[in-house]
Design brief:
By secondary structure, the protein is an alpha/beta fold. The protein contains eight helices and eight strands. The protein has one domain. The protein is globular, with a radius of gyration of 19 Å.
Length: 229
């Protein structure tokens, strides 16, 4: 069985929804596609790939005073592809865990850093990762660190989020959106992952789905819908 990073995150959000998908075959309704965000991601990857090929620093890396540069690694394209991603064949649990990174940077000492691109249209530029709703983004970066370490890389606990906020203050559109870019450092921990993967495996072995999660909007909807005569 292969379980993605998003699958593990789904378990963290709601064990019932996770079980319904991976054991019962019932997925949550799909969300809206983030086409504009995906476009920003694709353009950023092209920019960083240009510097990756040249062995130079991207302006964002220079602006924020780091010695980081895009990592040149033979697996980088595979690791950024959704259907393959960074894989860890977990023989003990008999599951392959995987997830697709946005980018991988390296410092002058040869230490690797997980990088995630984010794009938003919020009224104010995103300057930190403090809000509670960003906890999923943090788990995402930590899980990628875990996978890369399982692939033999020396990976820093520090991850970076390149957060691009669209500027709404301009007087005209003129077929162009300007972005405020902020490179946000996040020092995380992967200590939660092994125990969580054990819990995931235990949940997969259940015949009956776990109880509904009171904090899960999908579970709330189903419960309220079933209460209507």
């Amino acid at each position: 069985m292969r379980i993605s990073r998003t699958g593990v995150d789904k378990y963290s959000e709601c064990p019932r929804c996770f079980h319904l998908q991976y054991v019962k075959g019932l997925k949550r309704p799909p969300g809206y596609p983030f086409s504009l965000n995906n476009t920003v991601d694709a353009l950023l990857k092209k920019e960083f790939d240009t510097h990756r090929a040249a062995g130079t620093q991207h302006p964002a890396q220079l602006t924020f005073g780091t010695d980081l540069r895009p990592a040149q690694h033979e697996q980088i394209n595979r690791w950024r592809t959704n259907r393959s991603g960074v894989e860890f064949v977990d023989e003990h649990r008999e599951i392959t865990w995987f997830g697709a990174i946005d980018d991988l940077w390296i410092d002058s000492q040869g230490l690797y850093y997980v990088v995630d691109y984010k794009a938003t249209g919020k009224l104010q530029p995103v300057l930190n990762m403090d809000p509670d709703w960003m906890s999923g983004y943090k788990r995402q970066a930590e899980f990628y660190q875990f996978l890369l370490r399982k692939n033999g890389l020396e990976v820093s606990d520090r991850a970076y989020f390149l957060y691009c906020t669209g500027d709404r203050s301009r007087a005209v559109f003129n077929e162009e959106i300007k972005f405020h870019s902020e490179l946000i450092a996040y020092d995380g921990s992967t200590e939660w992952i092994e125990s969580t993967l054990d819990q995931v495996v235990s949940t997969l072995a259940l015949e009956e789905s776990p109880a509904a999660n009171e904090e899960c909007n999908y579970c709330k909807y189903v419960n309220e819908r079933n209460s209507i005569n």
